Every structure is written in structure tokens, then in C-alpha cells.
Amino acid sequence: MNCARKYGTLLLALGLLVAVPACTEDMASGWKIADTRVLGVRAEVVGDPDTAAPSPGDTARLTVLLAEPPGSESEPIGWGLALGPALFGGAARPITLDLPLPDAATLGARRSLTTAGIVCTNGTPTLEPGAMQPTCGAGTTRSTTLLYTLSLARDGAPANRNPTLGAGFATLSDAPWEVAADGLPATGCASLAGGAALPLVHVQKTEKLIHLFIDDAQRETYARTDGTMAREIITLSQFTTGGTLARQFSVWEGDAVALPDGAVLKWAPTDLTPGADGALVRFWFVARDGRGGLAYTTRAACVVP
Prior knowledge:
This protein is mainly beta. It has helices at residues 7-13, 104-107, and strands at 37-45, 59-67, 77-83, 86-90, 95-100, 112-121, 125-126, 135-136, 142-151, 170-172, 175-176, 200-202, 208-212, 221-223, 229-231, 234-240, 244-245, 249-252, 263-268, 279-288, 294-304.
């Protein structure tokens, strides 16, 4: 939907917004992506993607990070983000919304805006009159919800910046590991595999080592509410559709990178039973700075017997 067309409705909605946790997700499966899940929401300023906290009058771009098992990407989706009585939505991947923000006089003392969202597989979101949370209409086979609070830059304080996960962010078994192409088949990937973007992995071999690298310069220094200075803590959440990860989180904190050689993460594909033509396994990595900044990247591997 066109945000500008609903701008007036958005202004009316601002008075209804309240503070809620930044994002909710189904954590029952931990790092395992067995079904469609929302892993986070990245906020940036249109024209300045490194800025995570927009100022009044900016246009904020919200991108919902949707994790789906291989093969699910072809299923139609409908998504909606509700701001008070206004529902913004679409049907395309990736889920991205450009949101024009009111000026400082309209926002008053508000330091954040909250949206409730839903993703409907094979369905369309609806918002009942007076409701704050959208629901999925008839025909929906699966729904995924979220709550997200967008922090605003106010009072002349430096805007929080999004961290960055660079091209050399990850290696697999000490080999370069790059972002894979979209649209890879869930099975039959062996004929496409073998390069840095889609390594070929044999299940009968031992667990693999993933090395994760985050430049310490990504951790900003900021002023706490009591006036003291602190450095951001970068928390990395990691997920996969197949095999076993040794843990779900890696953390960079303190005066230097906690693990100067990169966080070492073990991945064991030994429980998988792929066919001879190979099975696709996808990975998601989500970095949060604890102040609203977020970065994400994906990887993939083709597993064969």
C-alpha cells in the first residue's frame, strides 16, 4: 500500500502507540528453522541506510527478516503492519515498508513508534475496526506475528547506526563462504554446488567449523542516561534449516572483540539424510547492538551423502 496515501491516518494513530518489546518470535525451536519465522526488523533511513534511528520528518524503511525453510519461498504470502487503525501491507518478498514520519511538533515527546505485524502464507492480512493486531483472512495456511518498536533520534543526540556484516563475515571449514543466490532448489542442488556461495558438504564427515567475524569498529560508543559512556554489545543470533548448531548466540563485548579470530561455531550435518542429488540447507545470522541497530545476512550449503 502507498504510505503517503495513508499519512493522515498514521498521524491519528500516533496517539494510540505504546511501548512494547522490540520483537517477538517463536523460540520453541531455538536455532532450528522448521517453519516460517520472523527473526527481526531492520530500520534504516531512506537515503542513509546506516542510520537505525530516524529523526522526525525522515522516511523510515522497515525490512522484516523472514526465515523460511527451503521450498517455502515459492508459497504466496500477504503481510501487514498495523499502526493504530492504519494497515500497511503487500504481497512481495522481501517485506519492506517505507514509512514517512511526522515532524517534531506532531510527534511531541514521543521517542518511539510501535507496529504490530503479521505474515499470512496463502492468505491476506485484515485489521478489524478498533483492533491493534492484524489477523489473517480465509485460506491462510500459516501465520507469523511480530511486535516492533521503532526508536527515534531526538534532542540532537547522535543517531544510532546499524552494524555491518561485511563480505568476509563468515567462513565454512576455513574456506570463504559467500551469500547464496535466491531461488535455489530445496533438492537437486548438487549440480549447482562447489563454489564459495554454495559449498558442497558430505554428511558422513565430522562437524564443520563456522568462523564468524565482526569488526570491532561496528561497536559504537554512546552516552547512557546517567551520562557515563559505554560501548555497544553486539549479539549475533544464528539459525539453520538443517543439521545441528552448537549454540544460538555469539556475543562481542568488553574493550575488544571477545574472540579476535572470529566466533567459532560448530555445525554438524551428520543427522541429515539427503538424496544423491543434494539437499539445500540455509543459514541466517542476525546482529543486534542492543539499541535498535540490526544487520543480517544469509548463507547456504548443499548437503550430499
